[in-house]
Each structure stands twice: as C-alpha cells, then as structure tokens.
Amino acid sequence: MARLYIGRKAVSVILMVMSVFMFSVTEVFIKALGGNYNLFQIVAFRIWLSLPIVLTVLYADRRNIRFRTRVPLLHAVRFLFGLASMIAIFYAVTVIPLGIAAALTSTAPFFVLAGSSFFLAERVSKFGWLGAVVGFLGVILVAAPHSTSNIPGAFVALLGALLTGGVIICLRILGKTENPAISALYNTIGMSFVCLAATAYFGFPSSSFEDYLLVAGLGTAGGLAQILNTWAYRHGNAAALAPLEFTACLWGPLLGLAIWGETMTPIAVFGLAAIVVGGCLCTTKGVTDDR
User: Fold this and answer.
1) Cα–Cα separations (whole angstroms), residue 72 to 6, 64, 118, 187
2) Distance between CA 34 and CA 254 in Å, rounded?
3) CB 247 within 8 A of CB 255
C-alpha cells in the first residue's frame, strides 16, 4: 500500500506540473494570435475549443448529473466574473511580457484568501495574511515598470487575478450543492453565446494557414491542460498540489525569453520569488477552520 500511495503522489505531482506548463503554452498561443485577432475572437476560440471537453466530462458522469439548479443567480455571477477575467488575462498576455503576466495573474490566491474571510466566514491564519503581504510586495516589484507602457497591462493583469479569485469563491459556494461539470457547462454555454454575438459584430479577419495552426495549438494546449489538471487532482491531495500552480511563474518567463527574447530585471525576479513564497503560504497555511 505504501508503494501505491507514493506512486500516486508522484503521478499527481507530475500531472500538475505538466498541466501548469500546458496552461503556459496556451498563453503563448494567445500572445501569438493577439496581433491578428481582437480579444473576443481569441476568447471565442478558447471557449469553443473547450466545449467538447466539458461535454465529454458530462457524458462520462451522466448518471449523476442534474441540470436543474437552485442558485441561477450565483451561476450568472460566476459567468460574468469568468468572462471578464478571461478577457482581462488575455489582454495582459498580449501587451506585457509573458513572465510578468504570469506572475501578476498568479496572485488570485491572495484575493481568494481575503474573500474566504469576508464571504465564506473562514478563519485566515497569521501565515495566510503574512503570505498575502509578502505576495503583494512582490507584485509591486514585478509591476514597477521601467516604461509607462507596462502600467495598463499590469493593472489589467491584477484585475484578471481579482476576478479569477471571485470565480473561485463562487465555485466553492456552488460546490456545496452543484455538480462541477454542470457549473462548467453553464459557464461555457453562456460564454459561447457572448462570443458568438461579439464575433458576429466584429467579424473574422482573413486567416492564414499559420493562423489555423495557432488556433489548433490553442485548442490542443488548452484541452490537455484541463485534462491533466483534472487527473492531477483526482490522484493527489488538493492542498499539496495547489502550490505547484505557481510553477507558472517559472514557465512564463522561460517561454517568453525563448520565443520573444523577453527578459526580466533582477528586481522583477525577486518580486516573482516573493509572489511564489506568498502564494505557497496562502495555499498551504492560509485558511485554518470555520469561525
């Protein structure tokens, strides 16, 4: 049994690291598509390509699915937060270096920590608040721009993290009564209609063969990231795996450097490390128990 436990733990760690890497690769395709498409079109690609994955999960768990919901308003709030956060993060990825965007959008756990205290009546430990302080000090160092062009993108990246935190809070409330796959289905359908209306208004520019490859890469990377993430949490403990989400702060700078030659100053690297340390404190020692 011990060998089986260790094996499952190692597998979950590998799957989580691969999942975060694939999410970072997804951002590479988003950044590459940003020059030819507007944000709604890129969001549409991302949503429509993820719909088959959601439907597959629903079909696999079809015996336990109930489509009726007791909290339609909360689903609507989750949808609005999710759509706005996706647009904000996609915008940040296209206008600021990938490493900085990855660092700033990884601050969602800090907002979740505060939200858990105010909206979920959960008790936040001293380590959790310390982690939030350390993390936001890191944000200041990372976002301190060397040119004014970084300010709007950095602000929008933080806004995306805040909205992502709102999505997580909504999902934690919904998780008490709703099937996660149903929540994902309602969200995806809602986003699909919004994106369909937006693309009907904006239209699609003529696409090259290279664009089709980028879109295919976006769908493949996004789908793999979701599947690997699901498998990771199925095999491992959520609290133990959560800090591995911050490996995005490693993959983002490396991919940005390798593909676009983006570099980070020593101060920004120090700030990035502070975000990781603060985030780990928040995810492992942040919430203690209910009040």
Assistant:
1) 41, 19, 22, 11
2) 20
3) no
Backbone CA torsion sign across 52, 56, 59, 64: negative
**pLDDT (tens place) for every residue of the chain, 291 residues total:** 444 445 667 788 888 889 889 989 999 999 998 877 878 778 877 777 777 776 776 677 666 666 677 778 888 888 899 889 988 999 999 989 998 898 889 888 888 888 877 777 777 788 888 888 888 888 888 877 544 556 788 899 999 999 988 888 887 788 777 766 677 778 878 887 887 787 777 776 666 778 888 888 888 888 788 778 767 766 666 666 777 888 888 899 999 999 999 888 888 888 888 988 888 887 776 655 544
Neighbouring residues of 146: CB distance < 8 A, sequence distance ≥ 6:
265
Q: What does the CA dihedral 23, 167, 181, 8 come to, rounded to 10 degrees?
A: 50
Burial of residue 233 (CB within 10 Å: 0-12, 13-18, 19+) is: middle
Q: Are 251 and 24 in contact (CB under 8 A)?
A: yes
Residues 222 and 50: their CA atoms lie apart, in Å, by 7
Closest CA to 195 of 40, 65, 63: 40
- The encoded tokens of residue 278 equal 């603060």
pTM, whole model, 2 decimals? 0.81
Could you tell me which residues are beta bridge partners of residue 290? 122
Which residue, among 202, 179, 160, has the nearest Cα to 41 in the 3D structure? 202
H runs (alpha helix) in the chain = 2-33, 39-60, 72-95, 98-105, 108-119, 126-143, 150-174, 180-202, 209-235, 238-241, 248-260, 266-285
Q: Quick check: 38 and 200 in contact, CB under 8 A?
A: no
